[in-house]
């Protein structure tokens, strides 16, 4: 897999919020591509055994030295589920064949770069391992989302220097909290806030910090939103995940993956995108009723919201001076309670075109600790 600067179709909200799709060459699809390969192997093995059904469990984060509490396992399992279904395998809870796994931060022995190692196994009803797999995922956006990292990444740095910055963010997490805003460091132009619906209005809720991570307490049945701030002079594209699931998981358009916030502006993301007219609000609810449970039967007890920021610009406009050329961008990638779908909220989106660049900032906030 190589990461190149891509031309994207983007959904635009009136307040300068946009959403864009990525082609298969973009880093965010790295996990999807790896799960497609895994699904092919599992599908072939099941057919050899005369089986057609499998139960997919969540993938547990096993970071050896990190203080981070990861929650991207359901997202990995969801991508594997979709890939298995494409292979004509029925994913069904309670099936006598089961897939389970883990993911961990590792240093790739060949490239010496940070990677996510996704390991798993297909087991039968007697807990006998039928097939094992191990896949590596690279790329700033994919890794930041998988591990729930908060960091800034220098856009002009080479791939090894960027990898070092991500490693430091995972091993020694830090975060900056100023009143209700959460950022990777003081002075960074990108921030997020968690807003909770109270009396018909979204009100920002102050976070706390624990072990260098931001936490916001959201009670069961509370509806919340994520406000994205872009204080830079350029538009910013933002990939947003909740409990490892893209906020476009339930969208009618499966290609949408990112939002864009206009220069010197902010945008409030109220829920899971369904169409260009409506979304399902983010609501903390009993796990069995949550968005994760709707897709998968298992999850971690800690919820994590992660936003990764990049610059973007019109296709006919020059990139920012500190945006690396496409030849250099290609180096940056290789191959309890939870949030559910609450009441419908009205939104309006339109389409434009943009090019977006490398990841510059990743911000994560954990909830219901």
List descriptors.
single chain; 369 residues; alpha+beta; 24 strands; 44% strand
Structure description:
By secondary structure, the protein is α+β, with helices and mostly antiparallel strands. It has one domain. It has 6 helices and 24 strands. Strands 11, 12, 15, 19, 20, 21 and 23 form a 7-stranded antiparallel β-sheet that branches. A 6-stranded antiparallel beta barrel has the order 1-2-18-16-22-24. A hairpin with a 5-residue loop joins strand 6 and strand 7. Helix 3 runs parallel beside helix 4. The longest helix is centred in the first third of the chain and has 19 residues. The protein starts with 5 loop residues before the first strand and ends with a strand.
| Total discrete domains | 1
Low-confidence stretches: 1-28, 296-300, 327-336
Q: Which structural class fits the helix and strand makeup?
A: alpha+beta
What is the radius of gyration? 20 Å
The helix/strand series, from N terminus to C terminus, equals EEHEHEEEEHEHEEEEEEEEEEEEEHEHEE
N→C terminal distance? 36 Å
Helical segment count: 6
Give the biggest beta sheet.
7 strands, antiparallel
**What level of helicity do the residues show?**
10-25%
How many strand units? 24
Shape: globular
Strand content range: 35-45%
Brief description of this entry?
By secondary structure, this protein is α+β, with helices and mostly antiparallel strands. It has helices at residues 30-48, 73-86, 140-147, 159-171, 291-295, 326-329, and strands at 6-13, 17-21, 53-61, 90-91, 98-107, 114-123, 129-137, 151-152, 176-178, 181-183, 190-198, 201-204, 208-210, 213-216, 223-230, 235-242, 245-246, 256-261, 265-269, 271-273, 278-286, 303-313, 337-346, 349-367.
């Amino acid at each position: 897999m190589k990461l190149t600067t891509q031309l994207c179709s983007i959904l635009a909200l009136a307040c300068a919020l946009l959403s864009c799709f990525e082609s298969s060459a973009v880093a965010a699809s790295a996990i999807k591509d790896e799960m497609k390969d895994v699904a092919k192997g599992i599908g072939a093995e099941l057919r050899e055994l005369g089986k057609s059904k499998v139960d997919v469990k969540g993938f547990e984060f096993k970071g050896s030295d990190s203080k981070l509490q990861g929650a991207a396992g359901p997202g990995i399992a969801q991508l594997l589920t979709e890939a298995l279904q494409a292979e004509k395998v029925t994913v069904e809870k309670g099936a006598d064949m089961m897939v389970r796994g883990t993911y961990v931060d590792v240093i790739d022995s060949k490239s010496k770069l940070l990677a996510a190692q996704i390991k798993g196994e297909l087991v039968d009803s007697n807990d006998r391992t039928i097939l094992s797999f191990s896949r590596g995922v690279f790329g700033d956006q994919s890794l930041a989302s998988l591990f729930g990292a908060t960091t800034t990444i220098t856009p002009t740095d080479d791939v090894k220097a960027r990898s070092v910055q991500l490693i430091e963010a995972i091993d020694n997490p830090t975060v900056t909290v100023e009143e209700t805003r959460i950022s990777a460091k003081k002075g960074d132009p990108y921030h997020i806030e968690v807003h909770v619906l109270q009396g018909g209005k979204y009100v920002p809720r102050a976070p706390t910090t624990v072990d260098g991570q931001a936490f916001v307490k959201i009670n069961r049945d509370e509806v919340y939103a994520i406000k994205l701030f872009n204080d830079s002079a350029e538009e910013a594209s933002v990939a947003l995940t909740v409990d490892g699931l893209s906020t476009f998981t339930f969208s009618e358009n499966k290609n949408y993956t990112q939002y864009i916030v206009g220069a010197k502006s902010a945008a409030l993301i109220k829920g899971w995108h369904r169409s260009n007219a409506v979304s399902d609000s983010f609501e903390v609810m009993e796990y069995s009723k949550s968005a994760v449970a709707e897709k998968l039967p298992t999850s971690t007890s800690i919820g994590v919201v992660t936003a990764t920021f990049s610059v973007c610009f019109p296709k006919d406009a020059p990139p920012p001076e500190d945006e690396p050329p496409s030849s250099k961008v290609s180096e940056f990638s290789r191959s309890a309670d939870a949030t559910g779908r609450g009441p419908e909220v009205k939104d309006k989106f339109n389409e434009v075109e943009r090019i977006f660049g490398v990841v510059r900032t990743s911000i994560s906030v954990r909830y219901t600790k």
